[in-house]
Design goal:
The complex is a heterodimer of chains A (46) and B (706).
Chain A (H helix, E strand, L loop, with lengths): L3 H24 L6 H7 L6
Chain B lengths: L5 H5 L3 H7 L3 E4 L6 H12 L4 E7 L4 E6 L3 H11 L4 E3 L1 H4 L5 H28 L4 H22 L1 H12 L6 H20 L7 H33 L5 E6 L2 E6 L8 E4 L8 E4 L3 E5 L1 H4 L5 E4 L3 E2 L4 E2 L4 E7 L5 H17 L4 H28 L2 H14 L2 H21 L2 E3 L4 H7 L2 E4 L6 E3 L9 H12 L4 H9 L9 E6 L3 E6 L2 E7 H4 L6 E5 L5 E2 L4 E3 L3 H7 L4 E4 L4 H11 L3 E2 L4 H13 L4 E4 L6 H6 L2 E5 L4 H6 L2 E3 L7 H34 L5 H19 L7
Parallel strand pairs in B: 15-23, 15-25, 23-24, 25-26, 26-27
Antiparallel strand pairs in B: 1-3, 1-4, 2-3, 5-6, 5-7, 7-13, 8-11, 8-13, 9-10, 9-12, 14-27, 16-22, 17-18, 18-19, 19-20, 20-21
Helix pairs in contact in B: 3-4, 6-7, 6-10, 7-9, 7-10, 8-9, 9-10, 9-14, 10-15, 10-26, 13-14, 13-15, 14-25, 15-25, 15-26, 16-25, 17-18, 25-26
The chains are: A mainly alpha (46), B alpha+beta (706).
Chain lengths: 46, 706
């Protein structure tokens, strides 16, 4: 059971990294034009 | 900021451009795919002075930065084959939507917490006991409590404001369930209890925030679209003081001011014509398709369009006293009636909220009376509150309406009013306006003219704002306009100019010296040639009428002759010579027969009818008053998708009802389990997730409605 002392903080930290990454995407306006971004990957020239 | 490719380093960064100029904004209702984005961004980048072009596909909006004129961009867009409407950037208020962002952040935090607590809960469900279980519960509490305090705020504030005025809304049972679940779980945890509902409390918050976020997105899209339409209007007027022309906001005009009305502009206030003559388009106000010729001293109403040379007028009524504003005031009173419509979600909440509270209170009393165990009775009551699963109910309507409204938006239909979709689904009769809605001026058989005459006709027509002139220009897209000089427009008659030393004229037959009365073209001394000018149906009208499964009729302010011509073409009953009050009367008569009327119209004479109808639609080119009176604005030229939109609205209402049924079925199964005391946190979590996900998936079926 001692392994829990390591595993629980690890899972929390990994989740926290995901959360911080998501908050960063919100703050840098990456959800303003979801349809446009989906379509843009089909364009060759930028 | 690092550039992805070396070429990007050379160009200015987007930040530089944004700082240089505010940018022009356009609404592009017809864009729909990657090819459109590429075509527009590449096409406009080659224009002189353009520094940056960015298309936003979700909002169907274009931003152009750089030293370039609105007309240049618009002409380029027309050449590329896209409809465009310039927007007033100031009226648009481009500040970012902070509430949407806050909701998204709260949702993310709740989602993160839910996943971590689930991880710990799985360990508890699979048999962790004693100290390990207590430790897991404590960690869960440490994550859940701050997250609930932060992410649950939207529900708590809404519930509190409802309770303050002594009313119940959907947020009251939600807040109660979240807070009680968290509170009792904390008590259980501290006393080494077996059941803690932290996962359920956080999952509830998370699922409900998804619904709240979707709801907000739909509404903010509608709000920004309404703002976009206001941005189409010009609120400036040219005042003449001591011979000098000065541009001032319409709000600053006073009675007695002399105002210059340029060609093609709307009359800003009521007044009297001071110039010799003028030709006005009153179709927006009265529905008459023919232009009206006025002489000095004639009365002008705000909203009329000057079709010919600029003229001067003296203001007699401004601000709230103009006929236009009085008409708008009439609309506002009519709108109050519509606001009394109760949305489906509110109806459900009104039923649901008291029922849930009574149910869980009865469960508490029952258990307390029979067992006398306070702690267990409270636990049962909380299990009932959680398991009745308001999350599926909170998702049932927003999930469907978000999907439906975005589907309609991609077809060029902009849903402005929150309950418009539900009301559109209920309509049983459709009433159309004629001028500007079903029909527009056009010229037929212009191709019979010699190509040289076509070139002259186009050149002359370009000089005028008369609807027929515009129709001529539109009918001759490939013709190179002839070079003409000394152009001037004779109000009420036509346009005259010099071409290769000959006098060329386009206008009324009588003015040209011909024996016909309609539109004609005369080159030099040759015989005048007649150009037929029937009213043409708007694009897609026939398809729409063919496809629609409801009784339709036309009510118009135009003359009986024009109405008959239309009636023959589309085979519908037409009521002619209808004044605004008559239109309203017809709608009331239909309503009295039990019909729910969908009104489609664009003019000021339709405004009262638009506002009082059960649901209403206006084209984007309509007057501001008409657009604000209507629930839905069609951004595209074509009406062909109208029946499809009615079907989508009906489908949405059907799916919303299905969602409520699904949620109810889950409750009917789960509530007895909870009351019997068998609802462990595991069962609560399963029931909640399963019903929410079913409801979300079911909503997506709106995409397949044909």
């Amino acid at each position: 059971m001692n392994v829990l002392v390591i595993l629980i903080p690890v899972s929390l930290i990994l989740g926290g990294i995901g959360l911080v990454a998501f908050l960063w995407t919100v703050r840098s306006d990456q959800y303003d034009d979801a349809q446009g971004n989906a379509a843009r990957i089909l364009l060759d020239d930028d | 900021m690092t550039a992805v490719c070396p070429a990007c380093v050379a160009g200015p960064t987007p930040e530089d451009i944004a700082a240089a100029s505010p940018g022009l904004q356009f609404s592009l209702p017809t864009i729909h795919c990657a090819a459109c984005i590429g075509k527009i961004e590449r096409g406009l980048a080659t224009l002189r002075g353009v520094q940056g072009v960015r298309v936003n596909l979700s909002l169907k909006r274009l931003t152009v930065n750089g030293q370039v004129g609105v007309e240049t961009v618009q002409a380029a867009l027309t050449d590329l084959g896209f409809e465009s409407y310039p927007l007033d950037a100031q009226a648009l208020n481009t500040s970012r939507d902070d509430r949407e962002r806050a909701l998204l952040t709260r949702m993310a935090v709740a989602g993160f917490a839910m996943m971590n607590i689930m991880l710990l809960s799985v360990a508890v469900w699979s048999g962790a006991t004693d100290a390990t279980r207590d430790l897991f519960h404590l960690i869960s509490a440490a994550i859940a409590l701050p997250v609930i305090m932060y992410s649950g705020q939207p529900f708590f504030t809404n519930a509190w404001s409802a309770l303050k005025v002594q009313r119940l809304n959907m947020d009251v049972p939600i807040s109660l369930a979240i807070l009680l679940a968290a509170g009792s779980s904390l008590y259980e945890t501290l006393h080494g209890g077996e059941h803690a509902y932290f996962d359920a409390a956080v999952a509830l918050t998370f699922f409900l925030l998804i619904g709240r976020y979707m709801d907000h997105r739909t509404r903010s899209a509608a709000r920004s679209a309404a703002k976009e339409l206001t941005a189409l209007e010009v609120h400036q007027a040219d005042r003449i003081t001591d011979g000098a022309v000065q541009s001032v906001p319409v709000a600053q005009l006073a009675v007695g001011d002399t105002i210059l009305v340029p060609c093609g502009a709307r009359v800003p206030v009521d007044g009297v014509l001071q110039s010799q003559a003028a030709l006005m388009d009153r179709s927006f106000l009265t529905g008459e398709s023919a232009a009206i010729s006025l002489e000095s001293g004639a009365v002008l109403q705000a909203g009329e369009i000057n079709l010919t040379a600029p003229f001067e007028m003296r203001a007699t009524a401004v601000g709230e006293d103009t006929t236009l504003r009085q008409m708008a005031a009439l609309v506002e009173t009519a709108e109050n009636g519509r606001n009394s419509y109760t949305a489906l979600a509110d109806k459900a909440a009104a039923l649901y909220a008291p029922l849930v509270h009574i149910l869980s209170f009865v469960a508490f009393l029952g258990w307390y009376v029979f067992t006398g165990d306070m702690r267990q009775s409270i636990n049962i009551a909380i299990a009932v509150l959680i398991i009745t699963c308001p999350c599926a109910l909170g998702l049932a309507v927003p999930a469907v309406s978000t999907a439906a409204i975005s589907r309609m938006f991609s077809a060029g239909f902009l849903v402005k009013h929150a309950t418009a979709l539900e009301r559109l689904a209920e309509v049983t009769t459709v009433v159309f306006d004629k001028t500007g809605t079903l029909t527009r001026p056009s010229v037929a058989a212009i191709s019979r003219l010699l190509s040289q005459d076509q070139a002259i006709a186009k050149a002359l027509a370009q000089a005028s704002h008369h609807p027929l002139s515009r129709a001529i220009v539109a009918a001759l897209p490939d013709v190179q306009a002839a070079k003409i000089s000394d152009v001037h427009e004779v109000p009420g008659q036509g346009v005259t100019a010099t071409w290769n030393g000959l006098v060329v004229r386009l206008g009324r037959g009588a003015w040209l010296g011909a024996d016909f009365d309609g539109l004609g073209l005369r080159v030099g001394a040759t015989a005048p040639q007649m150009i037929e000018a029937p009213e043409a149906l708007r694009e897609g009208v026939l398809e729409a009428l063919d496809d629609i499964d409801l009784p339709c009729e036309v009510v118009t302010g135009d003359t009986a002759a024009a109405a008959d011509a239309l009636a023959r073409k589309i085979d519908l009953p037409v009521l002619a010579d209808a004044r605004p009050a008559d239109k309203l009367g017809r709608l009331d008569a239909l309503a009295a027969q039990g019909h729910k009327v969908l009104m489609v119209g664009d003019g000021l004479n339709d405004t009262a009818a638009l506002a009082s109808a059960h649901a209403s639609i206006a084209p984007a080119a309509a007057l501001e008053a008409s657009r604000s009176a209507s629930d839905i604005v069609i951004l595209k030229e074509s009406f062909a998708d109208l029946p499809l939109m009615i079907r989508v609205a009906r489908g949405a209402s059907r799916l919303a009802h299905q969602n409520f049924t699904i949620a109810t079925v889950y409750n009917v199964i789960a509530v007895p389990v909870a009351i019997a005391g068998y609802a462990s946190p595991l069962i609560a979590a399963l029931a909640m997730s399963a019903s929410s996900i079913t409801v979300l998936l079911n909503s997506q079926r709106i995409r397949w409605i044909k």
